[in-house]
């Protein structure tokens, strides 16, 4: 089973990513780490615990809270899309389970140092925790099997140039993209092929159990906000795409390209500058995800949600 650490900021699509990662037999999720992003750090940590409770995940799965904001910039709000809790829609009780005592950054470092070089990091929020881990323990870069990032784009959703996760903490993104670790970038060009349509949501709603109901409630909310904010008919399940890639890399086509992160542009901070034309001479450092095999992706989600009801 492929070992992953899911670093997230739940988040509607982050919640789906957690459910897919915890529910799929070919992955071993070593822990969930949380970061400020879609909401403040205390809220994203609480939301992660709530997802674990809804899904009945084992208490032995650690949830470690991490950075409370970007490395150098103020935190951006995301409440127009995700609501004030960061995960509005379902009505959930306060979680009974507790956070693990270890800080997310220390957990990531420890897991990598204790590993045989077979742990994949899956950051699906701002890259603050991963950057801090790389700064605190540079030796870990060589021990990471792969980093599968949800972030970046050929077009932006936060500014015309930048995607939300990388715009939130461009300096952190730069550290990660320059780390030398094997990196796959799952940007908006890929995740906007993963829009949860009414037809897909009807299939989710037809499944039995608490998990499909939870997903339905999450996507009822975020479908509305995506309409209001972006005029889109359906919200993508961005973060779950990264997890799906860890389960089956054949779900994507990718291109190996040079990508650098803009940190200083007046209009372009957080932009993924992708050398598609090969004009810079800089060596390729990132596998950029380009196409999603939707005919395999949607069944993967449905099968995994359905499995929760059967245990
Ligand atoms: C990303 O931003 C967040 O709001 C989502 O959870 C996703 O990780 C998409 O740009
Ligand atoms: Ca996210």
TrEMBL record:
<dbReference type="InterPro" id="IPR001910">
    <property type="entry name" value="Inosine/uridine_hydrolase_dom"/>
</dbReference>
<dbReference type="InterPro" id="IPR023186">
    <property type="entry name" value="IUNH"/>
</dbReference>
<dbReference type="GO" id="GO:0006152">
    <property type="term" value="P:purine nucleoside catabolic process"/>
</dbReference>
<keyword id="KW-0326">Glycosidase</keyword>
<dbReference type="InterPro" id="IPR015910">
    <property type="entry name" value="I/U_nuclsd_hydro_CS"/>
</dbReference>
<dbReference type="GO" id="GO:0005829">
    <property type="term" value="C:cytosol"/>
</dbReference>
<protein>
    <submittedName>
        <fullName>Nucleoside hydrolase</fullName>
    </submittedName>
</protein>
<dbReference type="GO" id="GO:0008477">
    <property type="term" value="F:purine nucleosidase activity"/>
</dbReference>
<feature type="domain" description="Inosine/uridine-preferring nucleoside hydrolase">
    <location>
        <begin position="4"/>
        <end position="298"/>
    </location>
</feature>
<dbReference type="InterPro" id="IPR036452">
    <property type="entry name" value="Ribo_hydro-like"/>
</dbReference>
<keyword id="KW-0378">Hydrolase</keyword>
<dbReference type="GO" id="GO:0045437">
    <property type="term" value="F:uridine nucleosidase activity"/>
</dbReference>
<dbReference type="Pfam" id="PF01156">
    <property type="entry name" value="IU_nuc_hydro"/>
</dbReference>
């Amino acid at each position: 089973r492929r070992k992953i650490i899911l670093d997230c900021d739940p988040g509607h699509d982050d919640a789906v990513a957690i459910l897919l990662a915890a529910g799929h037999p070919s992955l071993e999720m070593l822990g969930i780490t949380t970061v400020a992003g879609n909401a403040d750090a205390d809220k994203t940590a609480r939301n992660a615990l709530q997802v674990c409770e809804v899904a009945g995940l084992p208490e032995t799965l650690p949830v470690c809270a991490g950075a409370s904001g970007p490395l150098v910039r103020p935190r951006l709000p995301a409440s127009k899309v995700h609501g004030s809790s960061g995960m509005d829609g379902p009505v959930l009780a306060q979680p009974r389970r507790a956070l693990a005592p270890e800080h997310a950054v220390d957990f990531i470092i420890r897991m990598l140092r204790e590993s045989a070089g077979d742990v994949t990091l899956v950051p699906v929020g701002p890259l603050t925790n991963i950057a801090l881990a790389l700064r605190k323990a540079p030796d870990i870069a060589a021990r990471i099997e792969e980093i599968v990032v949800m972030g970046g784009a050929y077009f932006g959703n936060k500014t015309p140039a930048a995607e939300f996760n990388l715009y939130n903490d461009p300096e952190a993104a730069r550290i990660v993209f320059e780390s030398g670790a094997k990196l796959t970038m799952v940007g908006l060009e890929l995740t906007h092929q993963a829009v949860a349509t009414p037809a897909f949501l009807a299939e989710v709603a037809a499944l039995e159990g608490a998990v499909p109901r939870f997903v339905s409630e999450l996507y009822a909310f975020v479908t509305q906000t995506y309409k209001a904010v972006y005029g889109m008919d359906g919200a993508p399940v961005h973060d779950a795409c990264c997890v799906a890639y860890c389960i089956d890399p054949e779900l994507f086509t990718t291109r190996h390209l040079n990508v650098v992160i803009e940190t200083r542009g007046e209009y372009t901070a957080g932009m993924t500058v992708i050398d598609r034309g090969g004009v810079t001479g800089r060596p390729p450092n990132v596998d950029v995800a380009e196409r999603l095999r939707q005919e395999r992706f949607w069944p993967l989600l449905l099968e995994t949600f359905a499995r929760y009801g059967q245990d």
